[in-house]
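In response to the reviewer comment on reproducibility (Comment 2.3), we provide here a single inverse folding case reported in full, input and output, so that an independent group could reproduce the run without further information from us. The structure tokens appear first.
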């Protein structure tokens, strides 16, 4: 799905402009390191009622493939190119590496902005930050709240790499230190809700929501662990709790979409960036492999699309 996603979205926008007074709103949600068997519509032991409802009302994409690690997939989501075309096919961008997604490539938010969209990003970037020109507000996003690196702690928002520790949570370009102690999924849902509450609905909206959840480290408020008392493996229990925290955040956002009348003209796209890491509690059954591998456990994504503009809804698509 990822290499065609930009073309698909732009095609849908152009077609819908012929039918509607304005293009559709687009909410693009990315889960991080979500396993194939870690969603409720596939595994009833996983408590994701909000995602399940969206998936079953829309179209579940059962043959959606992504790259096996973060940076290459995010590259493909925002450029529409396989990562070997951009030079980001090898692995992920680490904190000290002096490069990013090449500036010669036009990103999806830049194209949508030319079509009149307001563009906002909330969450994980992981496409380079060695100079400002590589960062989200220089690549087509009107606003950004999130972090630049591949991972960090969910409450402190810092990350240690090669014995060097840094804080990585920003509001546009400024550190957001007042959010220290708040759980990232809640921070991102709150910002997304603020964007929806304040958006001028005469203009189309592109909201890109690449959540930190459920990437390592395994951290979550205790109340979500209480949802899984029968799970005895600590890593698995915490991981599932993080999935449910993500689901609650998505539910709060979709409740806001409904409250302010967005759902009638909003396309919701949901995907993971790669398969789940089994050593951190994920489950890709019955697929072989995991994150970082080229087997389907690393590259087959839990994904769906939802929106009233889809002519056929409520089914599972098994085609590519």
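Designed residues, in position order:
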């Amino acid at each position: 799905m990822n290499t065609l996603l930009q073309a698909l979205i732009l095609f849908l926008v152009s077609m819908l402009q012929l039918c509607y007074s304005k293009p559709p709103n687009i909410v693009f949600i990315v889960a991080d390191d979500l396993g194939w068997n870690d969603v409720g519509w596939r595994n009833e032991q996983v408590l994701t009622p909000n995602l399940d409802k969206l998936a079953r009302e829309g179209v579940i994409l059962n043959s959606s493939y992504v790259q096996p690690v973060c940076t290459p997939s995010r590259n493909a989501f925002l450029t529409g190119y396989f990562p070997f075309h951009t030079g980001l096919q090898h692995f992920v961008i680490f904190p000290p590496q002096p490069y990013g997604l090449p500036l010669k490539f036009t990103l999806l938010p830049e194209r949508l902005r030319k079509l009149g969209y307001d563009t906002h990003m909330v969450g994980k970037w992981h496409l380079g930050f060695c100079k400002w020109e590589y960062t989200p507000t220089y690549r087509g996003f009107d606003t950004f709240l999130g972090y630049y690196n591949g991972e960090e702690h969910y409450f402190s928002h810092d990350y240690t790499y090669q014995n060097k520790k840094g804080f990585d949570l920003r509001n546009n370009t400024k550190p957001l230190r007042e959010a220290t102690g708040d759980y990232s999924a809640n921070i991102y849902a709150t910002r997304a809700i603020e964007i929806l509450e304040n958006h001028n609905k005469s203009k189309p909206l592109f909201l890109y929501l690449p959540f930190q959840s459920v990437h390592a480290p395994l951290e979550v408020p205790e109340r979500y662990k209480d949802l899984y008392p029968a799970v005895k493996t600590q890593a698995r229990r915490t991981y599932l709790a993080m999935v449910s925290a993500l689901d609650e955040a998505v539910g709060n956002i979709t409740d806001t979409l409904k409250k302010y009348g967005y759902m009638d003209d909003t396309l919701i796209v949901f995907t993971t960036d790669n398969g789940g890491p089994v050593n951190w509690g994920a489950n890709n059954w019955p697929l072989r492999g995991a994150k970082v591998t080229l087997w389907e456990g690393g590259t087959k994504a839990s994904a769906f699309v939802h929106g009233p503009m889809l002519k056929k809804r409520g089914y599972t698509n098994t085609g590519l």
